Amino acid sequence: MNEVHAWAAIGLIILASTTGDVLLSYSMKRVGDVTDLWRQRGLLAVAARVLATPTFALGLMAMAVAFYSLLFGLSWGNLSLVVPASASLTFVANAVAARIFLHERVGRRRWIAALLVAGGVVLMAL
Predict the structure, then answer these.
(1) Gyration radius of the chain over CA positions
(2) Which helix (H) or strand (E) holds 14?
């Protein structure tokens, strides 16, 4: 039964982490390059601009869900499965989500890498 819970936690980690990554990336793209703002007005001005972006807070909440899901997963499953599986499959999900939601170009090399990573998780789970 704990293995089922561990895989459920892994699934939630992947979903929440990918959602958080997409929302944070979207937020930072909307904020834009902060180099000039940092030089002219400092770190607090940069933080204020970032925190004023609504999707940034949603991304942080999603990442918090991913973190707590990781803690639950580690209480139910082995470290040698939970962390590599969630990290690897999040890599795959991020490539898919970046293509779909952020309209990023994901090259052939990244797709091949994602397939190899997914294959590694399958081997690890056996």
Answers:
(1) 17
(2) helix 2-31
